Amino acid sequence: MARVKGRVGLTMLNWHGSVPAALQVLSALVDNALQHGSTSRRAGAPLQVCLSITESKQLLVDVKDFNPTFADFEDVRAGVGDGLLVKLVRRGSITALTWFVSPEGQTKTVRAVLSAGVVEP
After folding, report:
1. Are the CB atoms for 12 and 115 separated by under 8 Å?
2. Tell me, what DSSP letter sits at residue 119?
3. Helix (H, G, I), strand (E, B), or coil: what is residue 44?
4. pLDDT computed for residue 9 by the predictor
5. What is the pLDDT of residues 68-93, one digit of tens each?
6. pLDDT on residue 119
7. pTM for the predicted model, two decimal places
8. Average model confidence (pLDDT) for the chain?
9. Cα–Cα distance for residue pair 51/44, rounded to 1 Å
10. Are 65 and 33 in contact (CB under 8 A)?
11. Sheet hosting strand 96-101, strand order edge to edge
12. Pairing of the two strands 108-115 and 58-65
């Protein structure tokens, strides 16, 4: 469902970058949130996803989950290890990867930044 709504969102935002790459990043973040970001208290609760475009035409993909920690974040950001998110970082699909905890300390948001760059056919 994230990929379908993501495609619609990217169209509405008039994203000039690679839609397939953006959908892969969105999918990886949602999969990771479902796998690592759920807790027994929040099982079945919907994830919050936000797509936005900055003034410098970068795409921000934000996924909020219910685990305020991110194990091995430095390795993931450095492209070390396995998993789709790590592969996308290594491939350069993700320009920057960050995360932050909500003010109440109960959730976190993982943000991937993508640059439009040259879109391959």
Report:
1. no
2. P
3. coil
4. 95
5. 999 899 999 999 999 899 999 999 99
6. 45
7. 0.89
8. 89
9. 22
10. yes
11. 48-53, 58-65, 108-115, 96-101
12. antiparallel
